[in-house]
Protein GrpE
Amino acid sequence: MTHSYDASENQGRGPEEPVVVRDRRRVDPQTGQVRPPGPAHAAPEPDEVPVEHAGPSLGESIVDESVTVVSDVEKELAERTADLQRLQAEYANYRKRVERDREAVVLGAKATVVNDLLPLLDDLERAEQHGDLTGAFKAVGDKLISGLQRAGLESFGAEGEPFDPSVHEAVQHNTSPDVAGPTVTVVMRRGYRFGDRVLRAALVGVTDHEPGAAPVDPSVGGELPLDGGVDEQQQ
């Protein structure tokens, strides 16, 4: 049966909307070229925006959680790096402090042993002054003194040294015009130091400059004075 068009069926209906076909393809299927942006490729209408590109709904946060996580990780990494650097610095300082303390302990132990040997060194020095330090006895004494010097022992206190109250102990005092200031002129007992530590001060006699007295001119020697003759000197 042939269906006849009945105009009465469309009565009460409005005019039909025209069908619009939009070609949104970026590449022309005929030419294969990328189409320039135009009305056909414009952004879709608000009601045609895909769900994945739609804006946040009411009450939804617009903060990107992935960015926040990365920032927290970077902050924690910086804190851990600073803690590690601080720990390394503290460990380096600890090693230096331990090494310094160990050296101080070793030096103190050596100084204690050397300090107990100072009376023996005094006996060797007196024996040498009296001419008794000879033969095998002298060889043993020289080896002992050389070993102590290599370990860090140093003697001080010699005639002609400027008087230093920090290392010299004055037990005798004289005055003379031959010196310009306090000078060690007599050594009664030699002093010793071990490294920076003074084991024993030197016992010395000190001669100070005599005020008001003119020092003897060493250039004259035993010659007669240039001014005046022998008769003037006798008068």
